[in-house]
Write a structure and sequence with these properties.
By secondary structure, the protein is an alpha/beta fold. It folds into 2 domains: 3-223, P-loop containing nucleotide triphosphate hydrolases (Rossmann fold, 3-Layer(aba) Sandwich); 252-315, no CATH class. 31% of the residues lie in helices and 24% in strands. The chain has helices spanning 47-54, 82-88, 100-103, 110-122, 126-139, 145-148, 158-170, 188-205, 216-222, 240-245, 250-257, and strands spanning 3-16, 19-32, 36-40, 63-72, 75-76, 93-96, 176-180, 208-212, 225-230, 233-239, 307-310, 313-315. The chain has an 8-stranded mixed beta sheet, with helices on both faces. Strands 2-1-4-5 form a 4-stranded antiparallel beta sheet. Strand 4 and strand 5 (75-76) form a beta hairpin. It is globular, with a radius of gyration of 20 Å. The two termini are 35 Å apart.
Length: 324
Amino acid sequence: MEEVVRLEDLRTYFFTDEGVARAVDGVSLSVAKGRTLGLVGESGCGKSITALSILRLVPEPQGRIVDGRITLAGREIRTLSEIEMRGIRGKLASMIFQEPMTSLNPVFTIGSQIMEAVRIHTGMGRREAGEVAIEYLEKVGIPAPRQRMSQYPHELSGGMKQRVMIAMALCLRPALLIADEPTTALDVTIQAGILKLMKDMQKETGAAVLLITHDLGIIAEMTDEVAVMYAGKIVEYGPCESIFASFCHPYTEGLFKSLPGRTARGQKLYTIAGTVPSALMFPPGCRFHTRCLLAIGRCTFDEPPLVAVADGHRAACWVRAGEG
């Protein structure tokens, strides 16, 4: 399959007064044309920074991509100038950001913000770009889209802002769509419509999709492959069906056991003990060993590699996937 994006040993660090935070610390993954990769894990594990790294939007000067390769449609983007990157963002790769409140410019109407992206990347005139903006506002379920074009972000609800962000990301039909919690602020019926729209767009254009979400139900419905991320690293990676049928890493098991549907009525919901360690001071060995019920001595000092546990399915665990 034709790869749209490939990350090889990506390392994105933040240099702070307290020390170096290794937010993304050796991540490798790829997404092929027409395929969807789901990236899952707790808050703080590095999912959003991985996505921002692909578009070189890591906040500087504290944040920097310090190592690794990012190949997007055959181009190594770490070598491109900022001007060249502006030509890629939006047209070749678009991102639906997690927080619409801070992603829209409060001093411009939503119509002008969508139209600007269309005009910059396509050369359309104002009238044509306006029709494209209206078309995509309608597609994402915004009522009276022609009237909404003249409204400012503060006049819209959180869910409406999220739909505007989705319209902006989809209107240029990018080769790569990065969706960071795209339906968080939406109710269930609108969420279903947005997910269908993303699927329909993917069928039409053959776009690759990197979907970041906490919702394993969405992962099951939308993705072809799944990467489970913990403390800046991928700990399990494989076809969606394989991971849902026979997850291997104890962290992945903890995520599945935390689902409400897996707990009997009247019993407490399962939780993974502890919290994700600080990126400033990851523990040695397996980074999950301080929270893992299966940890053995080797886990405390020797970091496990990702190894094959089934066809296309890999996991990093000395007990279940290694030689423990």
